[in-house]
């Protein structure tokens, strides 16, 4: 997606004060390229199997995941298991999604890593599973879209909510109402780049450069300064992914 201008993108991110970005994994075929980009730009990363790329019988992919994670286990830039999760828009592989999710939650618990969770139209199923796998380091529900009540259920289980470009859409009323009530220590900001382009964006690809707009919108909803929101969300990411060894 960014092969032709990745250098320029990282350059403009740094000019905009964005030090780095966490790059999540999606499937065995994608890990090599992902690891290469992460290494080249010194980005922390997650390794996982995304529900869109999950087969009905994901055992082989899970073995590959376990091998890949073992190969990277001493790399301080490996900071999470994920993306993994549940997506009801892709119902055809639902059983496989559940098997893969549970295996990845076990892996995260065993390795004491947080998880990056993708949850679309499946919050009640996800909450039920998370209650069975208590992870000491929790994780983030990335690209969260839901009500305050649902967000609160995740917070009670020790998870944070990833707020992305959806918050910039004028039609996202439920999400705006939710974010306005969320405690500042429960949110991370994210791009989900290159997906989740805000509706009013001129670029068809989403890029990390929208982070400032997301911060401005959260600040507006909380009636706080952008600096305060930046400080909180930065600290939340540092804590969740334990980035101190990498960034400071
Ligand atoms: Zn996702």
UniProtKB/TrEMBL annotation:
A divalent metal cation 2 binds at residues 118, 142. It comes from the Bacteria. Pfam families: TatD_DNase. Gene3D superfamilies: Metal-dependent hydrolases. SUPFAM superfamilies: Metallo-dependent hydrolases. One of its GO terms (molecular function) is metal ion binding. A divalent metal cation 1 binds at residues 83, 192. Keywords: Hydrolase, Metal-binding. GO terms for cellular component: cytosol. InterPro entries: Metal_Hydrolase, TatD-like. This is Hydrolase, TatD family. It comes from Shewanella violacea (strain JCM 10179 / CIP 106290 / LMG 19151 / DSS12).
């Amino acid at each position: 997606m960014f092969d032709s201008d990745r250098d320029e993108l990282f350059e403009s991110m740094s000019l905009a004060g964005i030090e780095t970005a966490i790059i999540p994994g999606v499937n065995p075929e994608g890990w090599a390229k992902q690891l290469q980009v992460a290494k080249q730009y010194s980005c922390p990363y997650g390794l996982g199997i995304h529900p869109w790329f999950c087969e009905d019988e994901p055992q082989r992919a899970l073995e590959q995941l376990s091998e890949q994670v073992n190969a990277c286990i001493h790399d301080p830039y490996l900071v999470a298991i994920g993306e993994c999760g549940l997506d009801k828009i892709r119902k055809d592989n639902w059983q496989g999604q559940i098997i893969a999710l549970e295996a990845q939650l076990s892996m995260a618990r065993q390795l004491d890593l947080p998880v990056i969770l993708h949850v679309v139209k499946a919050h009640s199923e996800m909450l039920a599973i998370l209650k069975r796998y208590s992870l000491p380091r929790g994780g983030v529900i990335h690209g969260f879209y839901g009500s305050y009540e649902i967000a609160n259920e995740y917070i009670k289980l020790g998870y944070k909510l990833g707020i992305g470009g959806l918050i910039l859409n004028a039609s996202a009323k439920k999400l705006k109402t939710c974010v306005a009530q969320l405690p500042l220590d429960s949110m991370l900001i994210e791009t989900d780049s290159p997906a989740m382009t805000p509706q009013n964006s001129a670029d068809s690809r989403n890029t990390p450069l929208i982070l400032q707009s997301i911060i401005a919108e959260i600040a507006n909803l909380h009636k706080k300064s952008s600096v305060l929101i930046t400080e909180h969300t930065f600290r939340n990411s540092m804590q969740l992914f334990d980035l101190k060894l990498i960034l400071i």
